[in-house]
Amino acid sequence: MKLIVLSGPGGVGKSTVISFLRANEKNVWVSVSATTRKPRTGEVDGIDYYFLSDSQFDKWIAEDKFLEWADFAGARYGTPKQFVDEHLESGKSVLLELEISGARQVRAKNPKALLVFLAPPSWEELEERLLKRGTDTEERRAARLTLARAEMAAQGEFDLTLINTSVEEVATRLISLALD
Ligand code: 5GP
User: What is the DSSP letter of 45?
Assistant: First the structure.
């Protein structure tokens, strides 16, 4: 059983890969994170995230419930550690989808974890995807691009990079890494 972290810039398609994997591979368990951001349309509490208030999140930190947690784009995100430990102990591989600082924290705590970076086929393609997203203000768009540039710069810290040319191919590759 392995602990795998998937990271990459916003807009690269991490959540699409994760949804595919959840639907198609029962031997890899995908962790459900906690967050203080508000649910988006269609997101379900306990499935996509545990949606917590700021004070609930504070309480989980105080109770040492997180394997890692980070501030990202105005909200907090964290991995509840109990389920991760339980799945690893029961012999399942576990996949975490994290922003960069979470990936660094997991590496520090668990040097055996495999850190995978999901990269776009080109910067232009990522830019296009990020600019199309939602109904952001010009300021929010600029902030997203700046953040994505910083995230791309962390690629060298990862054990391997997968280029997101096809959701199915990336998911299949992750499954074989996890079950190897
Ligand atoms: P979103 O709000 O778009 O769902 O996620 C924003 C970012 O938070 C993404 O880069 C996602 O990978 C990251 N993220 C989701 N859950 C966690 C978590 O538990 N810990 C950390 N560090 N990042 C997370």
Answer: B
